[in-house]
Amino acid sequence: MFDKVLIANRGEIALRVVRACRELGVPSVAVYSTADAESAAVRLADESVCIGPPAPGKSYLHIPNVIGAAQKTGADALHPGYGFLSEDPYFAEICADNDITFIGPRPDVMERVGDKAIARDQMQKAGLPLLPGTVEPVTSPDEAQEIADSIGYPVIIKAVAGGGGRGMNVVHRAEDLVRLYQTTRATAQAVFKDSAVYIERYLEAPRHTEVQLVCDEHGNGVYFFERDCSVQRRHQKLIEEAPSIHLSDEARRDIGERAVRGALSVGYTGAGTMEFLLDDQGNLSFMEMNARIQVEHPVSEMITGVDLIQEQIRVAAGEPLSVKQEDVVLSGHSIECRVNAEDPERDFAPAAGRLEVYVPPGGPWTRVDSHCYPGWTIAPFYDSLVAKLIVWAPDRDGAIERMDRALSEFQIEGRGIRTTIAFHRRVLANEQFRAGEVSTDFLEHFMAAEAAVAAE
After folding, report:
1. How far apart are CA 451 and CA 455, in angstroms?
2. Which among 62, 120, 143, 80 is positioned nearest to 288, based on CA atoms?
3. Residue 375, phi then psi, degrees to nearest 5
4. For the chain, is the Cβ count within 10 Å smaller at the N or the C terminus?
5. Per-residue pLDDT for 60 more than 80?
């Protein structure tokens, strides 16, 4: 096991890792910007180091400062959390060059799965289903036209290095293809410094289904079932749940085994997520792999009873997985709501400020992952996440009722602060959501219906 783990992140995930380290008996180091000097992670970690001013580029994304903090404190391992430097192979390589274990996959593996064209090719060879399209980058407008004509419209053009909903365009008509092909390449070059793109068939209103897995250095891999993350706005998830109610036990086992096989085929180690699109015929198609822990990992923990952060740390230290596949049993249903400091009435505009009242809910099988407390200032420099509210119940209906009850108890107040709590409750009350008939365009239609009612 490691002597000391530095957490190269902030907010709730930094606190989550501090707690995991504490339970493993491993000292932790929190790094912080000047805006986060009074954060809960700083208060609870064994050590803390300031790495710069509030701007992420001068603190959490400033590699020399992060590495310097690890060297200063003698940390022999680094947990990147999610976001920031968590999927940067260059950063992982610098960690290795400085004898610091990066808690995640090797840099070369991260680079391979981060390149969406290479990842599609590798996963296709490993037996994962793909949407019709290319596994190699498309290099000319003529080639793009030929591919689109062969697979049929609509198609989607995606940046090989893209992510988070950026660097993609949907093409519904042949006459728009060349223009959008060139636009996507230009955007990809500007945003990701890589103009390469690929093309695949575009699914109208699919469900977003993802498989959680962890692999160790001994050739073992285990899946922790799947999550449904279809409730999203502009490709940003708002509500996640596990398991998906749209997969049979046989389909669940099949896609889990394929996901693990795909990860092991590229030498993957650590926690990762295989993302799929599920069509209305029940067909799953591989979309991409995320080489990190994800925001929504708690719902997988709730239905399996496995601490995924501790598992991450153990396998990075060279230990074998603590569980075998047959040990992982799916139990009940879990839902997570991301409570953000945003104003849904103003197109989810950020609504940061100082928390005057912060009273999280309690009760059985109710979990709150948050770094906030009364007096804490939600800074405008970072994402707007205030808390992740997670519940578990024996079935989905029970989980929905428990989540609504928990949301009704959650008190967050402060000058200028607005949250998504009331919005989440309206979604939970929606008949379509309760029936589980939700696809990635659900929120778009839900919000349009609300706007129409408000305009009457």
Report:
1. 6
2. 120
3. 100, -15
4. C
5. yes
Query: In this predicted model, what pLDDT tens digit does every residue of 228-237 receive, in sequence order?
Result: 999 999 889 9
Which residue carries 């999550």 as its tokens? 227
Token pair of 162 as six digits: 């893209």
**Residues labelled as active-site residues:** 292
What architecture is domain 207-455? 2-Layer Sandwich (3.30)
> pLDDT averaged over the chain?
96
Task: Give residue 67's identity as a one-letter amino acid code.
Answer: I
Kindly provide the b/e burial profile for residues 39-73, where b requires at least 16 CB atoms within 10 angstroms of the residue's own CB.
bbbbebbebbbebbeeebeebbbbeebbbebbeeb
Distance CA 260, CA 126 (A): 10
| Main-chain phi, psi angles of 376, to 5 degrees | -75, 140
Cβ pair 29, 49 in contact under 8 A: yes
- What is the model's pLDDT at position 135? 82
> Judging by beta carbons within 10 Å of its beta carbon (0-12, 13-18, 19+), is residue 99 exposed, middle or buried?
exposed
- 3-state class (DSSP) for residue 8: coil
Strands 207-215 and 221-233: antiparallel
Q: How confident is the model at residue 167 (pLDDT cuts 50, 70, 90)?
A: confident
Average pLDDT (271-293) is 95
Residue pair 392/303 in contact (Cβ under 8 Å)? The answer is yes
The CATH number given to 5-103 is: 3.40.50.20
Which residues 6+ apart lie within 8 Å of 106 measured at CB?
92, 267, 269
- What is the phi/psi pair of residue 323, to 5°? -130, 150
pLDDT (mean) for 62-75: 98
- Report domain 132-201's class: alpha beta
Share of the chain above pLDDT 90, in %: 90
Please check the confidence at residue 174 and state whether its pLDDT lies above 90. Answer: yes
Query: Does 165 have pLDDT greater than 80?
Result: no
Which two three-digit tokens encode residue 74? 């003698």
